[in-house]
Design a protein that fits this description.
This protein is α/β, with parallel strands linked by helices. The chain is built from six helices and seven strands, in the order βαβαβαβαβαββα. Helix 2 links the parallel strand 2 and strand 3. Helix 1 packs parallel to helix 6. Bound molecules: 5-O-phosphono-beta-D-ribofuranosylamine. The site of 5-O-phosphono-beta-D-ribofuranosylamine (GRF) has 13 residues, from helix 1, strand 5 and helix 6.
């Protein structure tokens, strides 16, 4: 999959969430601290009660609730595409967005959708990545910022941060340490792909 650099104009970021929104907050804070050259212009949730919607509003970011209920994946994604385009969003960040995006959505923002996942991909894709890591007995796990393609937790890797697994770790304690790294990694990942010099380093590029 080829990477298409966002336009030269200051990037406009849309964030998709479904819940707590701590990575979303980390991105908004990073923007305000000038850690990357972009504006977070809208946060969209498919869940009306998502705590992240309140956190975004408190920070003065526009929020939208777009329910997926009673809609096909494509219908729901098309509504999101329309709203993102209206706001001239050039980079979409999935931050705890608990749905697979459709090929339609991937094509609409090709190479310009990022996701954060709480493992060192390609290990432990899917749900409960921290639990999967503990059950497997790995000694190092972490988090991955990657470009979204049509497969779950699969696209080209932008950045990873490692976290040691301790003998006495529980899913909660490990998740907490990974989350700290996620917050740093996501802002760094955004900065990295917005850098005009950014190149993917993959054999199939
Ligand atoms: C994070 O662990 C993220 O990696 C995963 O879902 C969780 C979302 O947490 N995709 P939050 O909503 O950002 O707090």
């Amino acid at each position: 999959m080829s990477y298409v650099a966002p336009s030269m104009a200051r990037a406009r970021i849309g964030i998709l969430i479904s819940g707590r929104g701590s990575n979303m907050v980390a991105l908004i804070d990073a923007e305000r601290q000038g850690k990357f050259d972009a504006d977070v212009v809208v946060v969209i949730s498919n869940i009306e009660s998502a705590a992240g919607l309140t956190l975004a509003r408190e920070r003065g970011v526009e929020t939208l609730f777009i329910s997926h209920k009673g809609r096909s994946r494509e219908e729901h994604d098309q509504l999101m595409i329309d709203e993102l385009r209206k706001r001239e969003v050039s980079l979409v960040c999935l931050a705890g967005y608990m749905r697979l995006v459709s090929p339609l959505f991937v094509r609409a923002f090709k190479g310009r959708i990022l996701n954060i996942h709480p493992s060192l991909l390609p290990a432990f894709p899917g749900l409960d990545a921290q639990k999967q890591a503990l059950e497997h007995g790995v000694k190092i796990t972490g988090c991955t910022v990657h470009i979204v393609d049509e497969e779950l937790d699969h696209g080209p890797i932008v950045l990873q941060r490692a976290v040691d697994v301790r003998d006495d770790d529980t899913v909660e304690s490990l998740s907490e340490r990974i989350l700290e790294q996620e917050h740093r990694a996501y802002a760094e990942g955004v900065a990295r792909i917005l850098d005009p010099g950014f190149r993917l380093n993959r054999a199939d590029e």
